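Take a specimen:
=====
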Amino acid sequence: MSNSYDVIIIGAGPAGLAVARSLQEAGTKNVLIIEREAEAGGVPRHCRHPTFGLLTERRPMKGHVWAKKLVAAVRYPLRTSTTVTKLLPGGVIEVVSDSGVETLRAKKVVLATGVRETPRHPRLVGGLRPQGVLTAGALQQFVYLRGLKPGNAPVIVGSELVSFSALWTLRNAGVRPVAMIEEGRRPIAWRYCTLFARLLGVPVYFNRHVSRIVGLDRVEGVELTGADGTTRQLACDSVIFTGRFTGEYTLIRNSHLDYNVRTGLPLFDQFGACSDPAYYAVGNMTHPADMGDQCYQEGRRLGDILARELVQPTTAGARISVAHGANIRSSAPNIVRQDAAGGWVDFNIRVDKPVTGVVMVREGDKVLYRRRHRCMPERRIMLKHIPVPALTDARELTITIDE
């Protein structure tokens, strides 16, 4: 087996498979896909709600059906149950599998490692460690891949879209949750999503923080703390933490690649290129977390870029850093590559708290973008068709929200 490739793709979720599909259509031959799970397809393969395929197939599809279709369309070698342990300069990586430790090389390495939900401890939830505490992703695997139930009276923590996906999963398992709990004063997802919960007879409590899990061997309840400091207990037999996605950044933090210390995001430009030009970032690990279809479309674009780059390499221009004002958590990209011709860039930004105001992108005193946005945490906020300055003295763009 060869240890050298044109492209190695780390992650066989929607974004990684989309990169492979575009490379395949462009005629690129020597490509390897690496996936640490036993099966390819990413998170959608254990989703049964029909919200996939709307952008890519023009029809609603259940996640596992859509994932199978994506996997079937790719004919490159796919190594599952294989974990990348090191990223080294120049496109060299170390992997571990049943075959042992190997060193692989590629002209281009794509990082499509996806996201994970924030579990209990980073949310500062007290109590012991009884059975029955899990995330929405673990819930879906329990129900759809193993045919198990998490309990008969769970509590769902969070109100993002994935929280209502967990509600759907429990409904399919014949389980009605005791309640949904949200720390904020309104749902993170669209307001009408709460109608779905109410139709199923599930109350939604706002301005409540799960401060403690009650139980020794098995969950017996949760302690809720209100905004005014009052507490109450709610009986339940399991707790499902949902959302607050963060990228899978462990490889990047332990590598030579530049990254944002606050968010963990790699520094990458509008073409996906990281600080080492052999590495590219794509998908939800760059903007936790968008819909699978959106990640697939993004992967297709990167695949086209890589196919052209392999045939006719371009000379990288100066890199302009992107600074963020108050309330802006991150942007994708967070570096802009500059060249003599200028060009255009789209920013996908995230905010720390609900805020409505005028979003501006500036190069010094020059305003490149100005538009009013209503921004919510964990929501996709797109700033489109922003002109990239042609060769000037600019070394920084600034994104701000003026309330």
About this structure: The mean pLDDT is 94. The radius of gyration is 22 Å. The longest strand covers residues 100-111.
